[in-house]
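Journal club prep — side note

Before the paper discussion, L.F. wants everyone to see what a predicted structure for a comparable chain looks like in token form. Sequence:
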Amino acid sequence: MFDFIEFSLLDILDILLVATLLFYIYKLLKGTVAINIVIGIAFIFLIWQITQALKMEMLSGILGYLLSGGVIALIIVFQQEIRKFLLMIGTTNFTNKRNFLKQLKFLQTEIGSDIDTETILGACKKMAKTKTGVLIVIERTNSLDFLISTGDKMNALLNEALLESVFYKNSPLHDGALIIRDNYIVATRVVLPISDSIKIPSRFGLRHRAAIGVSEKTDAVCLLVSEETGEISYIKDGGFELYTDFKELNEKLRKDLM
């Protein structure tokens, strides 16, 4: 009945690769306004295909020019996502099986977080009371090895006392950022890239700009405590995540680390 359909193993591989690519794009854009743009472009492409099939030359030509000229617009709109993707590829260590598989977390449907978020937030809450400056970067799928090399490497199991001692004002390790990976503190005194965004209010200092900078270039999330106000900020994807209480903040953090 379907003898006219030619189907080979290469066709199956092609479909699987396209499905994987689309799924990864969805995971990358999930929760951002960019996903709405992708849906809009897909809708325009569908209409363009229909107009071509119906031989509606004028409308088809307009939509064709719109789609062909949209490549540059897509690069501008998705520059942060493209940067993160290229950074992920560039920092993947293919000789290290564990790190390589971690870069492919998006292929898994469910990923449990081994990071003790309550310990991190508990330490931040204590340090907020004393207005101790804190900048914590939590690694997700993008490797932060290129940042770890700028600071002092460490391999210590995460606990509140250690976090408080690192950021104690007289500690030699308090200056810079602390990086957490898989429930371990892997580096302190890390130098982060500073965001040059003009959208950041002037009341925020270098600590906030550094947190925003690293979240713009990678998918890492950041927690910081202001020395001036003792306010705890949660930063992801180059922006501030709002929350009402510590319970909601913990839920947000756990969800983002899944």
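L.F.'s comment for the group: The first strand starts at residue 134 and ends at 138. Keep this in mind when we get to the figures.
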